[in-house]
Amino acid sequence: MLQTALIAEDHQNSNNWIRQTLKEMGIETVKHAYYCDDAYSLLKWGVQNGQAFDLLVTDLSFNTSGREQKLNGGAALIAAARDIQPDIKVLVFSAEQQETIITSLYQRSDINGYVCKGPSDAEDLKTAIESISKNKRYIPAGLLQQVRTKNAHDFSDYDIMVIAQLAKGTLQKNIPAYLQQQGIKANSLSSIEKRLNQIKDALGFTNNVQLIAYCKDYRII
Fold first, then answer.
1. Which of 59, 115, 140, 160 has a Cα-to-Cα distance from 104 of 20 to 30 A?
2. pTM value?
3. Residue 75 CA to its chain's centroid (Å)
4. Which domain holds residue 134?
5. Residues 53 and 107 in one domain
């Protein structure tokens, strides 16, 4: 359950609105910062004093108003936050709409949710917070559809079958026997390893755990 949150947002109106929404969702202790460096200082203080925040809500772009900052944006803040508190939940609230950037935040920054500022952001923010409070990732419907459409061409039935077996806990060395039972000709262990490595390289992953999590998040398996 989420009890404490930190908002990193440089627009006062957005800051106040997010704060009110968090309180309506039952998060009583909410602090805010207008700059990434200040947000990081609050996060660090919380960790050092046994008052770590449960949730970080951050924008990606910040107007520094000429003030020099060590952390130059939301992505840098997220990385710094993960270094001192790996288990903190992160929700990005931004106007950024590029699929590649948002997808990268899920893959590389391991964010827990993304809400795009816009006409439906009030309901989306509440839905995202509710999902994150239940230890679930929140992925915008539009992004999910784009990724699923894109991946329909990238992931073959063979790929999905192999990854699904890994997700069920089947050891990689035992998958050839399963594929043989299904009448799949490309069932050698070397073929499986080669294909998995190709997929991981394409998506920028280094292990099967990341690949499985990605496929589950985007409902590929």
1. 160
2. 0.69
3. 12
4. 4-140
5. yes
